[in-house]
């Protein structure tokens, strides 16, 4: 099958279903993620909790860092670019990463436009807080969506809010009479053909993962219970007391989210979770980036 077609990009994303994608900043962390059963890793300079602490401008990771991670593992390697940074995206595509995350966790490069992702052979994942935002990203060519949550906080409340919002809107569209679709599409700023596809499928046309704030196995299970296709975790693993155990437990929790007895076992002895932050006390809300 020809590389870079819509079918291949979307199908590749579907292979991550029911899995955990872990942010990693070194080869050593990438190996921990792979051994824990992560379906992919996301190479970046710092996990979101440290990006938050450091402040300043957060950019695509250095080439040497991404290469180090690509050489360390055999699972797919994703990497982040700044919103709208078409040059960072071309660099990552040429480098041969498996997936690009056009991410609000990095400082946006363009305050109006996202990347035209149809123009690339490499698939993209993008963040969204509601159905309109998710469908705008898909219209631009995103082959995978992740709800944004509030990355780096260890606080699951925003991830829950965004997943519930997307799921509520999908249910609304499913029950909507055909004649209301055009007006609704206009209201949420989404192409009407994609709104019609959501109505037909009863879900987004691409996989939808949860991200931002997952800090315990129960948080990961919660996102699956709410209808997520899988989970991204960064700070929740590598800012916990015992990343190896936490990583394994989160992978297990995603697989067995509907089995409370198993979740008891999985949640035992994971060590201390990362410290959490209250959303109203934050200086920066990363989720507000993207349009
Ligand atoms: O940025 C991401 C996806 O693009 C991260 O994978 C995710 O949001 C991590 O958040 P956290 O550090 O809160 O787990």
From TrEMBL:
- Residue ranges of the PdxS/SNZ N-terminal domain? 7-211
Q: Where is the active site?
A: 80
Catalysed reaction, written as an equation: aldehydo-D-ribose 5-phosphate + D-glyceraldehyde 3-phosphate + L-glutamine = pyridoxal 5'-phosphate + L-glutamate + phosphate + 3 H2O + H(+)
Key word Phosphoprotein present in the record?
A: no
| Gene3D superfamilies documented for this protein | Aldolase class I
Name any Gene Ontology BP term: amino acid metabolic process
Task: Identify the PROSITE patterns for this entry.
Answer: PDXS_SNZ_1, PDXS_SNZ_2
For this protein, the Enzyme Commission number is 4.3.3.6
- The entry's D-ribose 5-phosphate-binding residues are 23, 152, 213, 234-235
Q: Which residues bind D-glyceraldehyde 3-phosphate?
A: 164
* Single GO molecular function: pyridoxal 5'-phosphate synthase (glutamine hydrolysing) activity
Which UniProt keywords are present, listed alphabetically?
A: Lyase, Pyridoxal phosphate, Schiff base
Keyword check for Ubl conjugation: no
What pathway does the annotation place this protein in? Cofactor biosynthesis; pyridoxal 5'-phosphate biosynthesis
Describe the task this protein carries out: Catalyzes the formation of pyridoxal 5'-phosphate from ribose 5-phosphate (RBP), glyceraldehyde 3-phosphate (G3P) and ammonia. The ammonia is provided by the PdxT subunit. Can also use ribulose 5-phosphate and dihydroxyacetone phosphate as substrates, resulting from enzyme-catalyzed isomerization of RBP and G3P, respectively.
Q: What is this protein called?
A: Pyridoxal 5'-phosphate synthase subunit PdxS
Q: Which organism is it from?
A: Marinitoga piezophila (strain DSM 14283 / JCM 11233 / KA3)
Q: What is the lineage of its organism?
A: Bacteria, Thermotogati, Thermotogota, Thermotogae, Petrotogales
């Amino acid at each position: 099958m020809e590389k870079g077609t819509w079918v291949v990009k979307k199908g590749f994303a579907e292979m991550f279903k029911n899995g955990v994608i872990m942010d990693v900043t070194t080869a050593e962390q990438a190996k921990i993620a792979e051994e824990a059963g992560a379906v992919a890793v996301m190479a970046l300079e710092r996990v979101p909790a440290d990006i938050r602490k450091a402040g300043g401008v957060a950019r695509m990771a250095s080439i040497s860092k991404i290469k180090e991670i690509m050489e360390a593992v055999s699972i797919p390697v994703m990497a982040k670019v700044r919103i709208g940074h078409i040059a960072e995206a071309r660099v990552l595509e040429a480098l041969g990463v498996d997936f690009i995350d056009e991410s609000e966790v990095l400082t946006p490069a363009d305050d109006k436009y996202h990347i035209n992702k149809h123009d690339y052979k490499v698939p993209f994942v993008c963040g969204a807080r509601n159905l309109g935002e998710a469908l705008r990203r898909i219209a631009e060519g995103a082959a995978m969506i992740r709800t944004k949550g509030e990355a780096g906080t260890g606080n699951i409340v925003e991830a829950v809010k965004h997943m519930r919002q997307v799921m509520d809107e999908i249910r609304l569209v499913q029950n909507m009479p055909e004649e209301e679709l055009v007006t609704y599409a206009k209201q949420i700023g989404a192409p009407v053909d994609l709104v019609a596809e959501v109505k037909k499928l009863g879900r987004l046309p691409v996989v939808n993962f949860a991200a931002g704030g997952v800090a315990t196995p129960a948080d990961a299970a919660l996102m699956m219970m709410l209808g997520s296709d899988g989970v991204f975790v960064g700070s929740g693993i590598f800012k916990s007391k015992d990343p190896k155990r936490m990583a394994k437990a989160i992978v297990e929790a995603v697989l067995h989210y509907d089995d409370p007895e198993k979740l008891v076992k999985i949640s035992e002895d994971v060590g201390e979770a990362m410290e959490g932050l209250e959303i109203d006390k934050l200086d920066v809300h990363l989720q507000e980036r993207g349009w």
